[in-house]
Amino acid sequence: MANAAMDAASHAAWTLWRVLGQQGHVLREIVEVSTGDFRDLRLWRRQFANLAVGLVEEYRRPVLVPMTLVNPG
Questions:
Q1: What gap in Å lies between CA 11 and CA 33, rounded to an integer?
Q2: Average pLDDT by stretches of 10, the chain with 73 residues
């Protein structure tokens, strides 16, 4: 059972990253990113954080947070 839960969490984390990564690429087309990395955009970080908080508050789902959010940039 633990493996199934871990597989589900891993899949959810990958899906979350893929969707937010796509949003990041769109943002990079709209605004200038001096570093070239959309993860350095405060707007992208805020979107990621809001979605993670929403998943926990609304659905009581665990969220795996990439370490890139720890770097205040």
A1: 29
A2: 62 74 84 88 86 86 65 58
Contact (CB, 8 A) for 24 and 46: no
Q: 15-48 burial by CB neighbour count: b if 16+ within 10 A, else e? A: ebeeebeebbeeeeeeeebeeeebbebeebbeeb
The conformation of residue 47, written as its DSSP 8-state character, comes to H
Phi-psi category of residue 33: left, alpha or beta, with phi > 0 → left and psi -120 to 50 → alpha:
beta
Residue 15: enclosing H or E segment and its boundaries? helix 2-30
Q: What is the pTM of this model?
A: 0.62
**CA 9 from chain center: how many Å?**
14
Residue 49 tokens read as 């954080």
